[in-house]
Amino acid sequence: MPTTIKVDLGERAYEIRIGRQVVPGFSLETADDLRALIVSDSNVDKLYSEKCEAALQARGVETTRTAVPAGETSKDLKVIQQLLEEAVDAGLDRGSVVVALGGGMVGDLAGFLAAVLLRGVKLIQVPTTLLAMVDSSVGGKTGVNLPQGKNLAGAFYQPVEVAVDLATLETVPEREYVSGLAEVVKYGVVWDAVLFEQIENSVEGIMSRDLDVLEGIIARCCEIKAEVVSMDEREAGVRAVLNFGHTLGHAVENVAGYGELLHGEAVSIGMAYACGLSQAVKEFPEEESKRVSALLERLGLAVRARDRGLDLSWDQLRASMAADKKTRHSVLRFVLAENLGSVVFGCEVPEAVLEKVFTA
Ligand code: GLY
Fold first, then answer.
1. In a structure prediction context, what are the per-residue pLDDT tens digits for the chain, which is 360 residues long?
2. What DSSP line would sit under 111-177, residue for residue?
3. Which of 239, 250, 324, 335 to mutate to test the pocket of ligand 1 (most atoms within 8 A of CB)?
4. Is 94 helix (H, G, I), strand (E, B) or coil?
5. Mind telling me the catalytic residues?
6. CB-based contacts of 226, cutoff 8 Å, min separation 6
């Protein structure tokens, strides 16, 4: 039996199902003339599109498949234009479905497609990477990049279901898998000290991708995400806690040059930094800060840019943080930890502390 988690958003509530052999389409009422466009990327298409198509066809859905080139460059408005034209040519109508089959890039891209196609059609998220399973497939953030920065055009657009087949984790490249673990650790730090301890005690099973171990951990991450999103869908408040480590993380990604570091790799560095700031201004115990860094390192993640051979200039990082879309009125606000499992958002930090913790 899959684990089922509800994202409680009233009329737009939906289920996340997590397990083995979870197939997409479980939320669809079988009806004549239901059409789906399955969007994946050139890697995932070869692995899982046929299976996804067969599952939908078994429910009477007419399907069309398309795949964009793998990689962040596909998260582009020009690709949205192409996909919109493909969807219209394939005969999709207001009752149709877009299925996002893949990692975070595909989920964001196909999610945005679903939001704007015919002013909105149903969206099914079928994440096939760890990062997409625990983070980007849940909660309705969709969008594409602009030359000025990542995710600068997009919409909050919730799926009608999230179908997580854990078996797809077996084909995730090691570096990408490890990168996804940064977001897993994040949930422990921001919300649940018991989860944090569970991760500490399961490093071996996590690294060997033991699906029995991963099922419980992924389900708990999704439960937390569902709870936070249900409280604050549009990030007016508490949802910001999910950005723990992301302020410096995004800047590191940007200054290192997109593609140099994976998102989770940069977030790991950002989380260690946020722990340092938390020690400096929130009395976050040094012991707990060390536990966070130690866990990230045991999972194969770096906690300092220089540990990845990067010599990044503080001035450039500081400028990049100021340009982040989360910055308002030029004031940087951080999510900081008070204890493991408990964070506060919207924290200002004195300028001197920002630099001192980075250079320490
Ligand atoms: N990835 C953070 C969020 O969905 O809010």
1. 899 999 999 999 999 999 999 999 999 987 668 999 999 999 999 999 999 999 999 999 999 999 999 999 999 999 999 999 999 999 999 999 999 999 999 999 999 999 999 999 999 999 999 999 999 999 999 999 998 888 999 999 999 999 999 999 999 999 999 999 999 999 999 999 999 999 999 999 999 999 999 999 999 999 999 999 999 999 999 999 999 999 999 999 999 987 899 999 999 999 999 999 999 999 999 999 999 999 999 999 999 999 999 999 999 999 999 987 666 667 899 999 999 999 999 999 999 999 999 998
2. HHHHHHGGG--EEEEEE-SHHIIIIITSS-EEEEEETTEEEEEEEE---SEEEEEGGGGGGS-HHHH
3. 239
4. coil
5. 119, 141, 183, 225, 235, 239, 243, 246, 250, 263
6. 5, 6, 7, 8, 16, 138
Nearest alpha carbon to residue 185 among 141, 231, 134: 134
> Beta strands of the chain (E only): which ranges?
3-7, 14-19, 35-41, 62-68, 97-102, 122-127, 141-146, 149-156, 161-165, 334-339, 342-347
Predicted local confidence at residue 29, as pLDDT: 84
Place of tokens 């996002």: 100
Bridge partners (DSSP) of residue 67 are 40
Distance spanning both ends of the chain, measured CA to CA:
49
Ligand 1 atom at shortest distance from the alpha carbon of 139: 4
Task: Give φ, ψ of 162 to 5 degrees.
Answer: -125, 120
Question: Which amino acids bring their CB within 6 angstroms of ligand 1?
Answer: 135, 139, 141, 235, 239, 242
Are 64 and 37 in contact, with CB atoms under 8 Å apart? yes
Structure token digits, residue 155: 């919409």
Cα separation of 50 and 323, whole Å? 42
Place of tokens 């789906």: 36
User: What one-letter code names the amino acid at 208?
Assistant: S
Distance, CA 242 to ligand 1 centroid (Å)?
Answer: 6
Q: Quickly count helices (H) and strands (E) in the chain.
A: 14, 11
This prediction has a pTM of 0.96
